[in-house]
Amino acid sequence: MKINATDFYSNDSFARIKAEAAKHETPFLVVDTSIIGKGYDELTSAFPFAKIYYAVKANPAPQILSLLRDKGSNFDIASRYELDKVLAEGVTPDRISYGNTIKKARDVRYFYEKGVRLFASDSEADLRNIAKEAPGSRVYVRILTEGTLTADWPLSRKFGCQNDMALDLLILARELGLVPYGISFHVGSQQRDIGAWDAALGKVKLIYDRLKNEDGITLKMINMGGGFPGNYIVRTNDTATYAEEITRFLEEDFGDEMPEIILEPGRSLVANAGILVSEVVLISRKGNTSLNRWVFTDVGKFSGLIETMDEAIKYPIYTDRSGELEGCTIAGPTCDSADIMYEDFKYPLPLDLQIGDRLYWFSTGAYTTSYSAIEFNGFPPLQAHYI
Ligand SMILES: Cc1ncc(COP(=O)(O)O)c(C=O)c1O
C-alpha cells in the first residue's frame, strides 16, 4: 500500500501545500481552502434540493467560516463559543441551527437573544428549557439510528431518542408553544454504508405519518446530519453515489411531498483540504532482533490525531522516500503510552525513512486543530496555515 499524492490531490494543490509547508517548522496543518470551495459546490450540485448547514466543529477556522458564508452555507453550531465565532464573521442568525442536544438553559437563552430560532432536542428536560428560554422557536427532534458498525467514527447512543419518545416530544413541543418543525439523525461519521440513510429515513417516515394522521402535526423538515466521508485509506463511494442513493431513498419514502432537507456536513467538506505535516523524531526497535520498527513523530494523539483512537481513522501518510515498505508502529512525541496512533494496524512506511524526514498526513483538515490539546507535555496546540 503505497500512498501516492496524485490519488488524493491535484498536482497544483499538492505543490501549493508543499510550498507553504516549506516555510514552517513542523508540526502544523496546511489547508488549501480552494478544495473546500470545490467540495461545497460539488455537494450542492449533488443535492440541489438540500440546505447545507456546515458542522463548525469539524474545523472552526475563520478562513473556512468566511468562505462558506460567502458561498451561502448555513451553520450547525455546538456551543455558544462556536456561535460567537460564526456571528463574528457576519453570519445572520437565521442561517444558524443550535444542533447540540446537550446544552444549559442559559446557553439556550444566549442563542435566543442573538436571534437563533432553530434548535435540536432529544429529551423532555431540554425541550422544556427551549420552550422557556427560546419561546416560539422551531425545534427538531433527533432520533437514534443504527450504523455503528459501518461508521468509522460512530455517534451512537449518546444522541437521539427512540421513535416513540420522538413522537411524544414533538407533540409536547406544540403544547409548549414551540413549532414542531422536523426530525434529525446522524448515521455516524465517516459512514461507509449508504444504506444507513435508508434505515434512518424509514424511521423518519413512520414518525411523519403518525404525527400527520393521528395528531394533526405536519412536520416541515428532515435534517440528515453529516456522515459523508473524507478520503482516507479505507475506500468509500464518491459524493455523487451517496447523493443518488439518498435521493432515491427520499423519493421512495416521501414522493412529491419532500420536506425541506438539511445536511450538516463536517468531515466531508474540510478533511481532504488539509495536510498535517510532521517530522520523524526517532526510529527504533525494542530489541536487538526485533522485527517491529517504531516510528515516533512530532505529532500525536494529543496534538490533533485523536481520531486515531482505537485506530478508527486511518490517515494516508505520504513521504518523499520511495524505498521498500515495511509495516511499523507509529507513535506521537508525548510521555503517555496512549499516544500511539497505529499499532495493531502495521502501517507500511519505507525502510529508508530517516529521522528528520517529513511525513504528510493527508485528509487531516477535519477534527484535528480543534481537538489538539493546549499544553500536554508542554507541546503547544497544533498550528495551522490556510492558503
Ligand atoms: C449534530 C451534528 N451534525 C453534523 C456533524 C458532522 O458530521 P460529519 O463530520 O460526519 O459530517 C456532527 C458531528 O459530530 C454532529 O454532531
What's this model, at a glance?
It is an enzyme of class 4 (lyase). Helix content is 30%, strand content 23%.
**What string gives the helices and strands in order?**
HEHEHEHEHEHEEHEEHEHEHEEEEEEE
The CATH architecture of the largest domain: Alpha-Beta Barrel
Query: Outline, from the CA principal axes?
Result: elongated
CATH homology group of the largest domain: Alanine racemase
> CATH class of the largest domain, please?
Alpha Beta
Helix content: 25-40%
Ligand inventory reads: pyridoxal-5'-phosphate
Q: What is the beta-strand fraction? A: 15-25%
Question: Sheet with the most strands?
Answer: 8 strands, mixed
Task: Give the total of domains.
Answer: 2
Structural class: alpha/beta
**How far apart are the termini?**
29 Å
CATH topology of the largest domain: TIM Barrel
C-alpha Rg (nearest Å): 22 Å
Annotation, overall tally of beta strands: 18
